[in-house]
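User: I'm curious whether this sequence folds into something compact or stays loose and floppy. Could you predict its structure so I can see for myself?
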Amino acid sequence: MNFKQVNIKEALFDQKQKSYTLLDQVSSILSTSVKLDEDVLYRLQHAPVDQILDLNKLDESDQLNLFTIKEIKNICLKYNLRFLDSSYFKAEFPYEAISKIKAFEGKYQVKVKSFKVVAPAEVFKLEDCNKDPLLFAQLADNRYYLIHQWGSDMAWYRALQSFPVKSIYSYFIFMWLPAALVAFGLPFSWLNVAPENEFTLRIWLTVHSFIALFFFVIFLGSTAHKNFSENSWDSKYYNS
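Assistant: Here's the prediction. I'll summarize afterward.
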């Protein structure tokens, strides 16, 4: 067996070439990853393209993240949130959300072109006439896949706080409370009525206080361009 003599200079150049090859491979992988990140971010920040993704073969674990438009609407009404295209979201998208989008697209060999975000109105760039956002990918049949959630949790009392502005019906129900507080909070000495007629008078005051407060608050809301959640949950306008 003949053993070739080792030229240390040639061996050094061979090692250098191997290092360059490895660095080129790493650089190529990183460059591809960066391009994918930029592509996903571009689609998140720009107007969506009309697209229907009919994914009938979602894994069982992914099926848990599918929500109908009705389910999303109910949550938006309950907590006074907006459900808008991701291009209206004015905060930065976390890298974890971008990574999950890439993983989802790679897993099912698709390219999502329409994203939605559920969040309070103040985190959107709303047109004229970083609180717990949810990022969705739009699929077929008015279904949406929950990609990622970030930010801090909403206060436990937000549902109660949002109840009066949920709809005209919830507002109607709520306004009886301040009306009753006004009517039954008045001292008896102010009523100038016989004790046996006190309750009847307080009921009468409740009804009339309700009517006065109901229309007064409606007037204030209309002058401030406010609307009920059932009318604004998917609107891109701040005054609707």
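Summary: The mean pLDDT is 78. The chain has two domains: 10-154, 158-232.
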